[in-house]
Amino acid sequence: MATFLYRLGRLAFRRRHFVALIWVALLTLAGVGAASAPAAGSGSFSIPGTEAQKAFDLLDERFPGMSADGATARVVFQAPDGQKLSDAGNKPAVEEAVKDLGNGSEVVSVTDPFETKSVSEDGSVGYAQVRYEVSGMELKETSKEALEHAAEDARDSGLTVEIGGDALQATPHTGSTEVIGIAVAAVVLVITLGSLVAAGLPLLTALIGVGIGVSTITALANVLELGSTTSTLAMMIGLAVGIDYALFIVSRYRAELAEGRDREEAVGRAAGTAGSAVVFAGLTVVIALVGLAVVNIPMLTKMGVAAAGTVVIAVLIALTMIPALLGYAGRKVQPAGARSKRFGRRKAAAEDHAAKPNMGTRWASFVVRRPVAVLLFGIIGLGAAAVPVGSLELGLPDDGSQPTSTTQRRAYDLLSEGFGPGFNGPLMVVGDAQGSDDPKAAAAEVADEIKGLDGVVTVAPATFNKAGDTFTITVVPDSKPSSTQTEDLVHAIRDTGAAVQADTGTEVLVSGTTAMNIDFSQKMNDALVPYLALVVGLAFLLLIAVFRSILVPLKAALGFLLSVLAALGAVVAVFQWGWLSGLMGVEETGPIMSMMPIFMVGVVFGLAMDYEVFLVTRMREAYVHGESPSQAVVTGFKHGARVVTAAAVIMMAVFAGFIGSSESMVKMIGFGLAIAVFFDAFVVRMAIVPAVLALLGKRAWWLPKWLDRALPNVDVEGEGLKAAAEAHADKDKELVRA
User: Fold this and answer.
1) Strand, coil or helix: what is 629?
2) Contact at 8 Å (CB) between 531 and 603?
3) Residue 420: is it exposed, middle or buried by C-beta count within 10 angstroms (0-12/13-18/19+)?
4) Which of 248, 264, 363, 660 is exposed most, by the fewest CB atoms within 10 A?
5) Are the C-beta atoms of residues 387 and 573 closer than 8 Å to each other?
6) With contact defined as beta carbons under 8 Å apart, do 688 and 375 qualify?
7) Which residue, 301, 376, 331, 381, is CA-closest to 43?
């Protein structure tokens, strides 16, 4: 591996014009494709294998004009204080609004609150439901404007009018904090690399990689049904790893220059050593992201594969474009420790630096002397941060989690006030009566059974399709959609449906948005352990080959579990408990999104292994070259701690930049990943890892001989390069003697 990447780096350095042209051409091609591609929708959302999805599929088949997955809007009307909607001054305004709502080209149906008796008992609140033939993100702007104009006209008559549902779903934006994150990354790069030119290289290559990745996603979004969150996630991870991977290669290049090597040789060695670490670090991230396919939720699979593609691009750019740009930069990129323009000489400053240990050396020496104390401190600290995980509540956000300033939230509150909290999350019971001798009797039996259950407010009469073999029943719970009581009711209805099917031959399914959210959460919980086993297992095998050790990868995996639990604890404290919620821009607390634990497990594991590979490969490199285990730990920190610290700060800044997003999922992911990188880089990798390695000593690098023979030699440490250099030197000596 090291030899191949050494040759690749030197080739890119020599053929820099060709390499730069290829990447610029790819960026241009992707940009043109994105600009000419049709606008993407929200992406299809389906959960194969769940009862709710089966019911949706049945409705599409038996109720062809129903548009079960189309956007909906609930236009909620409230009469002025002391009045009713049925009063002579209010009823005409409501009827006119209903008429206007039905004029849209994408409208499938509109209900009149007076005809459907959708008015509260006191007569002050009512609603009209609008159903569209396309999803909320696919709605034309003209349809959204017509909806808002109808509401505005009704407001002019004195009514309070708010709009709920997903018809007004907006494309999320990240805000200015994303730019701040990149600016912080730029400052850290300048401090770490010592010059604007050297700092600009990682930023430039990362932006090019993200540009290619996100533009490709945009170009294919309509064809592959990719949602807007997919490109946001790809941008978030692509920026972070793109900057970090380039930083490691540039830093190693400067270190090689400081050893007195010429620029082409330094580029080759940087690509062969740091580049090998980049390849395997990137592989762990790709494994974690692609592994999301195990969950078997198409939306999540697409998000993972798209983000993994951006990581692959970041790795390829770091291995090829960075060497090419270093060729262009020439003497503008100085050797490590150089403080003047005399690049070709080793500096007295470097000697002074060697005489005075740097911060990484001093910290590692302290940890090696006090490994037990450092280990206990790190474990106890992360354990304390993980305590909130014990009260973790999972769910999916609804209009009740929106800020109170939005019309969706105000509509939600009005409906809760007028009809009860469960009215915002009605359940749809679907009956497949093809196997029943009397479908109407079966529907009546289902309705009667549901009425007898606890937690039910109303059960609407059954509605049949034209063929008369399928019916739907709307059930309104007495609890809010995200509550455990509503979840218990869904399970109770399903249990009742099983008994009805045995009696009448009618299959009863529970669906609707609330039931879909419950099934989604359950599917995520069920997939967590298999996903964790797959991702950690594959990465464990990969790291055994990289480190030629069993205990080091095992330690890496256990450290990851500590950091991800601590990060989840922090997410619960902020987004569920409300700690520091104002500082993070969290206006409404609530359950943690169902996909958050499994998503964090995947992404954080991949990123955690980045730092493990970058830091520990330098330790193994020193150990392989003859140093004692304790001294190898110190040497690894001497050369790697500064760069790993800078990489972690950059990654935290990039992720934290997405906390300003208007979409709660992106905000939560940005915070979760930023705090996870902090815990993993500064507590696990910088404290727990050296402490454990110091305690293990030579046992850390133990590998059974049979396994050593079976594993491929990936040569991350660059032993092949050293052997080749020594052989070349011996050959030169022989030629001199001759």
Assistant:
1) helix
2) no
3) middle
4) 264
5) no
6) yes
7) 301
* Residue 101, phi-psi category: left (phi > 0), alpha (psi -120 to 50), beta (remainder): alpha
d(C-alpha 455, C-alpha 408), whole Å = 25
Tokens of 358: 């740097």
By the 8 A CB rule, do 176 and 658 touch?
no
- Non-local (6+) Cβ contacts of 337 within 8 A are 258, 347, 349, 350, 353
Q: Kindly tell me if the per-residue pLDDT of 731 is higher than 50.
A: no
How far, in Å, CA of 453 to CA of 495, rounded?
Answer: 11
Beta bridge partners of 109: 131
Q: How many residues does the chain have?
A: 738
Contacts of 361 (CB under 8 A, 6+ apart): 634, 637, 638
Q: Is 164 helix (H, G, I), strand (E, B) or coil?
A: strand
Which of 170, 171, 168, 172 is closest to 72 using CA atoms?
Answer: 168
User: What is the C-alpha to C-alpha distance for residues 70 and 167, in angstroms, rounded to an integer?
Assistant: 9
CA-only gyration radius of the chain, Å: 30
Entry pTM: 0.78
Separation CA 738–CA 728 (nearest Å) = 15
Bridge partners for 75 per DSSP: 128, 163
Q: Are 277 and 514 in contact (CB under 8 A)?
A: no
Express each pLDDT in 391-423 by its tens digit.
Answer: 888 877 777 777 777 888 888 889 888 888 888
What whole-number distance in Å separates Cα of residue 106 and Cα of residue 199? 51
Give me the residue label for tokens 């997903």. 166
Q: What H or E segment, with its residue span, contains residue 250?
A: helix 228-258
With tokens 């240990």, the residue in question is: 357
Cα–Cα distance measured from residue 164 to residue 712, given in angstroms and rounded to the nearest whole number: 59
Contact 612, 543 (CB under 8 A): yes
Give kind and range of the element (H or E) at residue 162. strand 160-165
162 residue type, one letter? E
DSSP 583-615: HHT--S--PEETTHHHHHHHHHHHHHHHHHHHH
Q: Are strands 394-395 and 592-593 parallel, antiparallel or unpaired?
A: parallel
> What is the helix (H) or strand (E) element at residue 77, kind and residue range?
strand 72-78
Please answer whether residues 245 and 285 qualify as being in contact, where contact means their C-beta atoms are separated by less than 8 angstroms: no
* Lookup: tokens for 279: 């390849």
Q: Which of 36-50, 183-197, 445-459, 654-668 has the weakest average pLDDT? A: 36-50
Q: In what order do the strands lie in the sheet with 160-165?
A: 107-110, 125-132, 72-78, 160-165
Amino acid at 607: L
State the average pLDDT over residues 664-693: 88
Q: How far is CA 591 from CA 400, 410, 493, 576, 656, in A?
A: 11, 20, 24, 6, 21
- Supply 569's token pair: 């604890």
Cα–Cα distances in Å, from 94 out to 77, 115, 143, 152? Answer: 8, 12, 19, 12
Q: What is the dihedral of CA 314, 316, 320, 321, to 10 degrees?
A: -30
Contact call for residues 282 and 245 (beta carbons, < 8 A) = yes
Give the tokens for residue 448: 């009667």
pLDDT per residue over 688-701, tens digit each?
999 999 999 888 88
Do 452 and 489 meet the contact criterion of CB atoms below 8 Å apart?
no
| pLDDT tens by residue, 100-121 | 888 877 888 888 888 888 888 8
Using the Cα atoms of residue 724, residue 729, residue 730 and residue 735 in order, give the sign of their dihedral: positive
Q: How far apart are CA 81 and CA 375, in angstroms?
A: 64
Q: Are 447 and 455 in contact (CB under 8 A)?
A: no
